[in-house]
Amino acid sequence: MNEVEELVKIEDMIYEVKGRQVMLDSDLAKLYQCKNGTKEINQVVKNNLEKFPEQFSWKLSIKKFKKFWSKILTKK
Predict the structure, then answer these.
(1) What is the pLDDT of residues 8-63, one digit of tens each?
(2) Cα separation of 47 and 59, whole Å?
């Protein structure tokens, strides 16, 4: 895969939520080829909280996630 194709893939993984650009842990797990998927990403964050301040790492409630996900599906 060339650099342009890779950039497009990464750009497709960035969403806007409340005016902020975000990436899902599942997309980060794919990007970094984590063997244990989101579990691995979330464990790294949990074990290194000082490296991931709240503005860079936060969790959506189920209700907010469903609303967010429906917007993504209608966007595509």
Answers:
(1) 578 888 888 778 888 888 888 888 888 998 999 889 888 988 887 776 777 778 88
(2) 16
Helix (H, G, I), strand (E, B) or coil at 27: helix
| The one-letter amino acid at 70 | S
Structure tokens at 64: 């907010």
Q: Angle CA(48)–CA(64)–CA(7) in degrees, nearest 5? A: 60
- In order of 9, 10, 51, 71, the CA distances from 6 in angstroms are 5, 6, 26, 24
What span, in angstroms and rounded, lies between the C-alpha atoms of 76 and 74? Answer: 6
Q: pTM of this prediction? A: 0.61
DSSP class of residue 13 equals T
